[in-house]
Write a structure and sequence with these properties.
The protein is of the alpha+beta class and about 60 residues long. The chain contains 4 helices and 3 strands. The chain has a single domain, classed as Orthogonal Bundle (Arc Repressor Mutant, subunit A). This is Excision nuclease.
Length: about 60
């Protein structure tokens, strides 16, 4: 079970890491989440972004460009 939990956690990014990956600040990240452009969810008290949601967001940027 610990291995499964580690695999799941490896696919979830805390918002601080998402900011680093997207090179945006906290305000812009929360704007993206609030507008629905970047999907996120809460795990306990933490808000996280899944690897799939991050990839979809980046793909949408490529398509729009």
């Amino acid at each position: 079970m610990d291995e499964l939990a580690a695999q799941i956690n490896a696919r979830l990014y805390p918002l601080e890491e998402v900011m680093d990956r997207l090179l945006v600040g906290r305000t812009k990240l929360y704007e993206l989440i609030a507008s629905g452009q970047l999907r996120s969810f809460k795990v306990g008290k933490r808000r996280v972004v899944s690897d799939a949601a991050l990839r979809e967001f980046i793909a949408a940027l490529d398509t729009a460009a």
